[in-house]
Amino acid sequence: MAAVRLQKLIASAGVCSRRAAEELIRAGRVQVDGRVATLGSSADPETQKVPLDGKPLKLPAEHGYIALYKPRGVVVTLADEKGRDGLVKLLAGYPRRVFPVGRLDRRSEGLLLLTDDGDLAARLLHPRHHVLKRYQVSVRGPVRNADLKALAEGVELEDGVTLPAGVEILERGAEKSRFAMELYEGRNRQIRRMCEKLGYEVLRLVRTRFGTLELAGLAPGAWRELTRGEVKRLREEVRGAEKRMRREGV
């Protein structure tokens, strides 16, 4: 969030009008990071402390940000014309209308970001920003080293060769193998199609990371609001990607 004039912050916290807030500032009752503020000062409430009379302002969130563990079988939509389970039931009681950032197919599960911050969502989904996604993939039977190498180097699909990916074997058995994959692409059903091309049946697919967010601590169907620090790190990630694009002349 960009810096905002203090009188606007005070008014948005429901303390008083902007005009009355100016008087509070003139009276030296408002601070920014421990220093007495002056009229015309601004602050970023996500990164700076803004107390009034020594007590933190209770500012309403500008946007909603949710990390949700999408269970298997749930469709990533807020309204499904076929009557399938969607996200509305999982988010019952949340006061904002938030939207999913990206997708997970019905059979997949794991971390899903939802927000009403359209600017951040668009920047995270920009195909050239290369936001990292990490998955745990379980396939039937033993997985061959040559196929793990192929997944890492790129697989020829109907919409082109996939970009290089990070691949780490976690478990190899006669009945099932499990490995982690880190992607910067976001093609439709990409991991499933890559595995199918190599002859593997995907038994389970779980997204464990999206950008700087981690799934750890969430049970299937559960959600939590992001902290200001988590939102800040997501914004920093896309800003870094945009800087790289400018340097490369993209």
UniProtKB/TrEMBL annotation:
Keyword Isomerase on this protein? yes
The chain positions of domain RNA-binding S4 read: 4-92
Please name the InterPro entries in this protein's record.
PsdUridine_s_RsuA/RluB/E/F_cat (IPR042092), PsdUridine_synth_cat_dom_sf (IPR020103), PsdUridine_synth_RsuA/RluA (IPR006145), PsdUridine_synth_RsuA/RluB/E/F (IPR000748), PsdUridine_synth_RsuA/RluB_CS (IPR018496), RsuA_PseudoU_synthase (IPR050343), S4_RNA-bd (IPR002942), S4_RNA-bd_sf (IPR036986)
What's a Gene Ontology MF term here? rRNA pseudouridine synthase activity
- Enzyme kind, highest EC tier: isomerase
Keywords of the record: Isomerase, RNA-binding
GO process terms (BP): enzyme-directed rRNA pseudouridine synthesis
Mind telling me which CDD domains this protein's record contains?
Answer: PseudoU_synth_RsuA_like, S4
List the record's Gene Ontology CC terms alphabetically: cytosol
Query: EC number(s) of the enzyme?
Result: 5.4.99.-
Q: Which Gene3D superfamilies match?
A: Alpha-L RNA-binding motif, Pseudouridine synthase I, catalytic domain, N-terminal subdomain, RNA-binding S4 domain
Keyword match Isomerase: yes
Q: Report the family membership.
A: Belongs to the pseudouridine synthase RsuA family.
In terms of NCBIfam families, this protein maps to: pseudouridine synthase
Q: What is the protein's given name?
A: Pseudouridine synthase
Q: Which organism is it from?
A: Candidatus Coatesbacteria bacterium RBG_13_66_14
